[in-house]
Each structure stands twice: as C-alpha cells, then as structure tokens.
Amino acid sequence: MREKDVTLAISRALAQYINSNAQFRAVLIRSKDVFVELDRRSELARRHKADILISVHADSVASQADTTRGASVWVLSNSRAERENRKVLNSHQHGKLLGGAGEVIGDAEQNPYLAATILDMSSSTSRAEGYQLGNEILNSLGKFTRLRKTSPIHASLAVLKSPDIPSLLIETGFLSNAAEEQQLRQPNYQKQIAYHIYKGIWSYYRKFPAKQLRSRRESALRAQAGAAVKIKRGDTLSAIAKRYGTTVAALRATNGLKGDLLRVGQIIYLPR
Predict the structure, then answer these.
(1) Considering the entire predicted model, what is its pTM?
(2) Per DSSP, what are the bridge partners of residue 110?
(3) How does pLDDT run across 235-251, given as a tens digit for each residue?
(4) Which residue in 73, 68, 70 sits closest to 56, CA to CA?
(5) What is the SS3 assignment for 141-205?
(6) Rounded CA gap, 88 and 126, in Å?
(7) Which residues are bridge partners to 168 per DSSP?
(8) First-residue to last-residue Cα distance in the chain
(9) DSSP characters for 230-257?
(10) Does residue 59 carry a pLDDT above 50?
C-alpha cells in the first residue's frame, strides 16, 4: 500500500466534507498524483489566502517487526519557527504574509528589532491557533481510531513553516503496522478518518467563535471585495470614496468599519 494513494483519497474526502458546510471552502494543494515541493505547498496556501493549512500523511517505520501504530498531529517547533522567521526578514518576503502582518512589518522595516517582534507575534499566534486546532482534531479522531499521542507533537517540518497560517501535519496511522495498513486501505475507513478531521475543524470554530467570525469576515472580504488600498498620511474615508467613485457607507460596510478613523499603513478594500 502506497502512502500517496491513502493520503490523496483521505484529502479528497476531507475536501468534500469541508465543502458540505457553507461556511467553509476547501482548496486542494493537489487533486491528482503529482509531486509539489514542500516550500511550494505553503506558497499555494498563501496564494489562496488560506485560514488554515492541513497536510495529510500516513506514517511508517523501517522495522517490519515494529508494532508502533496510531494517528497523530504535528505542529511546528519553536526552534524551526525562529529560523524561518529570520529567513522571512532577511529575504524581505514579509510583503506576502497574510492578515496585515506584512504591511505592518514593512512600515517597521527601518527598525529591525520592531519588525522581528511583529513577525514573532504573528508566528506565535498562528502556532498557538494551530495547536488548539490540533487538539480538537485529535479529540475527534480519538473517538474513531487509536491515537499515538493525545496532544499535538512539535517538530521541525518544512510544510508547517508559514508564520501567518495555522498549519498542521496529520499522520493518519502507520502503513508499516499490518493492522493499520488493512484499515487504511479501506475506502470507508479513509472516509471516516476524513470525517473526523472535519469534525475537529468544525469543533474548533464553534469552540472559539471569535476566530470563526474573524475568519468568516476576512474570507468574505477576500471573496467579495475589490482592490485593496493602503492608507497613507492624510487619507480619509470621504477622500478615498471620492477618488474611487464609491461612498463612505459602502467602504464602511465592505471593511466592517464602525467609524471613520483610519491609521497609516492600514489596508482597506474597495467595494466591487
């Protein structure tokens, strides 16, 4: 049994469950048997402005006599996160980051200590959210299958390195374990694994409604809004409305603004 056959089947099923919920939309990094470089995976997630990134795997050990089994969830270690953050700053790639962190870091670029602090805060928040999400997924998976660990495991994994996207790697079981290999090759078992991953995601957003509302608002902005405008010194909502042929009320509604106060460096979206 090949890992890619198992994981692609589970990922396709997971996408179907996610898309069955009108509040979510799944984007597959790949939908067929092609290899995508590790760095490219997080880049594609960022291009689609993903709220979370989930990488599905099936584990294995070298010794056929090994009895190790069970599903697990992995998150990025602190040491790997620190190295990746330094790379982002040194390569000046922060402009691609989601959630406004890139713009703020850009404004603080002349102060490297401030820029590093902002990036570290963004990265820490994403990893904390990923850890919380991982716990919910493990709780859900544990109701159906054996777990190797009941809490997320920290590791240095390239696919999890995005400082702006909560990212998880899910090991669905061990193909080197005869019993789990038999389970993982069954289409119904694959669908059940996918379903319980989805239930963990849904539980996470119900348990932390502020994250659900934020993700829904940001996703709606990305889907429905037009071009983005970066606020400069002296900009006002009325001046922007006049410049782009819209209204102050439409700008407020599109961006969820309660008042007219804007800050330099802020990103707002134009109505379509």
Answers:
(1) 0.69
(2) none
(3) 999 999 898 888 888 88
(4) 73
(5) HCCCCCECCCCCEEECCHHHCCCCCCEEEEEEEECCCHHHHHHHCCHHHHHHHHHHHHHHHHHHH
(6) 15
(7) 54
(8) 49
(9) E--TT--HHHHHHHTT--HHHHHHHHT-
(10) yes
